[in-house]
Structures are given as structure tokens and as C-alpha cells.
Amino acid sequence: MEFVAVALIAAFAAFVQSSVGFGYALVFAPIASFLIAPSEAIAVSIASSTVINTLLYAEYRPRTDIKAVAALTAASVLATPIGLYALLVADEDLLRLFIASGVFLSAAVNLRHPSREGPPRPDRIVLQLIVGALAGAIRGAVSMGGPPVILYQHWIGGGAASIRSKMFAYFFWGGIPTVLLAIGSGVIDSGAWPYVVAASIGLPVGILAGRGLRPRISEVLFGRLSMALLGGTAAIAAIGAGLAIAS
Predict the structure, then answer these.
(1) How far is CA 34 from the centre of its chain?
(2) CB of 57 closer than 8 Å to CB of 168
(3) Are 69 and 173 in contact (CB under 8 A)?
């Protein structure tokens, strides 16, 4: 029954990411941690994220070239071991607290700084390196490194299609190295793979549903959905953290 539930959670998380460009780990990790250990949920999220990121990068048009996200991706991969170390040494209650704190912070910042309207700002390499490093550390620790990058891309602007494309490219190019690091460090172990398979089964349905929704999402609605996603997942993560601390 757990495997069916994991597949359904993954399908919903895939629907979210396919439609707005991010959110798979934000949705999957907090909800799945109610069913399986938080450390296991994070491991499954890291591994299954690579599957959905590959599928989305392959199907989405326009496709962003790696050069546009190279600094973000490189900094993220280099900082991932920091987060993986935190994941290995922290207990499960703290992991849930990390999830809640990280998502709450992201939601608060996003509410204060909505998407840029008008011409996009030029990318800034130094800022990309800082954002990428922060995202990599968070991704390694709680499998939710998207918020720093999505906040950066909304600050840059360029419209929903451009932001989605850049996010899909960033997740794809950084995903495989992250999984290899997670396997090498022992974060993803043999116990996680059955759940990864279950999650992967649910991905295609979610991707197709999200793809059908994209044309119906206006530029204004895109920004609001992004903020609502961060705020909603923050609430879920906070409930999980509160229950863990209280028990």
C-alpha cells in the first residue's frame, strides 16, 4: 500500500513541476515523509527527481542550452556534498525541521518579491554562483534545492515559458551528478530503490496532465501559482515538523 501511495504522491508532484516548472521535491518530500522515514523520503526524492527532470527536459520547448545555467549547475553540484553530509548526521526530527524552515523562508521571500514584469534582467555570474551553491546545499540536505533558483529566475524575469525552460535545464544537468553523489555517500541505499521505482511509475501521468495545463496558465497566474506552491508546501512541511517535535 505504501508503494501505491508513493506512486500517487509522485504523480501529483510531477503534475505540479510539469505545469509550473518546479515543485516536484517540494511536494514529494514533505508528503512522503508522513509515510516513510524523512531520510528515506529525501533519498527517493533525489533519485526520482532525475527521472522526471530528464523527461521534462527532453519534451519541453523552447529548450534552454546548458550555457545559460552552467554557473548555477556547477555551483549547485559542488555544494551538494555539504547538504549530503548534513543529511547523514542529522536526526529525522531535525530533517523535518530543516524542510519546514527552508520552505517557509523561500515562501516568505517569494511573497515579498514577485515575478519581474517587462524585459528580463541580465544574468549575473556572481549571483548565479551564490544561488547555485545555496540550492545545492539545500538539495543535498532535504532534496528541495529549487526555491533559491526559482526565486532567482523570477527576479530575472522573462515570462513563464523562459522560466520553466531554465528550471528544467537546471534540474536536468544538475540531477545526475547529485544522484551519483548521493549514492556514493550512502544517502541513497538499497532500501530506497523500490520506492524510487514506485515513484517513477507515477511520473508520466503527472507530466502529461501538467503539460495539458501549461497553455491555460497566464503570466499573472504563473506568478501566483509559484507563490501559492511555496506557501502551501511550507504549511505541509511545518505540520510535519511540528508533529515530529511534539512526539
Answers:
(1) 18
(2) yes
(3) yes
Place of cell 514506485: 198
- Angle formed by the axes of helices 125-142 and 160-185, nearest 10°: 50
In this structure, the chain runs to a length of 247
From the DSSP assignment, how many helices (H) and strands (E) are in the chain?
10, 0
Give CA–CA dist 61/81, Å, rounded: 32
Please list, in sequence order, all residues whose beta carbon lies within 8 angstroms of the beta carbon of residue 130, skipping any fewer than 6 positions away: 75
Give me the residue label for grid cell 551553491: 133
First to last CA, the chain: 24
Helix (H, G, I), strand (E, B) or coil at 100: helix
Q: How big is the CA angle at 81 (ends 122 and 186), to the nearest 5 degrees? A: 140
Give me the half-sphere count of Cα atoms (radius 13 Å) on the Cβ side of residue 142.
29
Torsion of CA 113, 22, 85, 75, to 10 degrees: -70
Residue 234 is which amino acid?
A
DSSP class of residue 120 equals P
22 φ, ψ (degrees, to nearest 5)? -160, 175
pLDDT tens series, the chain, 247 aa: 899 999 999 999 999 999 999 889 888 988 898 899 888 998 999 999 999 999 999 999 888 888 899 999 999 999 999 988 887 887 666 666 666 666 666 666 666 555 656 678 899 999 999 999 999 988 888 777 788 898 899 889 888 889 999 999 999 999 899 899 999 988 899 999 999 999 999 999 999 999 999 989 888 788 778 877 877 777 776 677 677 667 7
